[in-house]
Every structure is written in structure tokens, then in C-alpha cells.
Amino acid sequence: MTLYVTLNIMDPFGTCYSSGLVGEHALKSKIHLRAGSLCNPAGMAQALGYTAADLSYARDAGYVCGVDLEPMGRPVGMVRVSLGASSIRLATSRLLCGS
User: What superkingdom heads the lineage (predicted)?
Assistant: First the structure.
């Protein structure tokens, strides 16, 4: 059985870190996760409450999948973590505790 957790990470002031930045830091910490629209832009838009006009604005501002750009000042992506039988305790601890 695998548990999937989809989230955005915020600073102490409630501002979301970009999913691209979270992905970069996770990779440096040897944590494997997915970041971005997760190959499902419509699902991402629905989960984050974006309208068609919001998505058009983001596209016109230069956002494309894989680019760390948040033209609306809100996340244009999410972080997805999979925990399952092959997850190791060290990686899980790094993710949850930051160490």
C-alpha cells in the first residue's frame, strides 16, 4: 500500500514556497518527490482554485511546466510525496523533520 500526500509548503508568514524550489531542496537532501503540476494541469488548477482566466494569465506571463515561475504570486504547482513499502525511515525522517 502506498500513501500519497500532496501539499504546498509555507514560510512562517503563510507565503507558499514554489514547488520548484521545494523540489530542488528535496533533491539536495536526497529526498525523492514530484513537484509542479504533476502532469495534471486541470487537477492542479482545481485543487488550487484557479479559473481559466488565471491559467491564461499564467501562460501569457511565460509559465510553462517545469519553469519555476509563479506569475500570480500564488503557487502554480504542488509537491507530491509517495510513502510506501520501499520508503526508508531516513528519507521519511528528512521529509517530516527536516533532518
Answer: Eukaryota
Q: How far apart are CA 18 and CA 16, in angstroms?
A: 6
Q: Give the C-alpha separation, 28 to 62, whole Å.
A: 27
C-alpha cell at 35: 513537484
How do residues 39-76 score in pLDDT, each as one tens digit?
787 888 888 888 999 888 888 888 777 666 677 778 88
The residues assigned a catalytic role are 39
Of 78, 97, 98, 94, nearest to 31 by C-alpha is 94
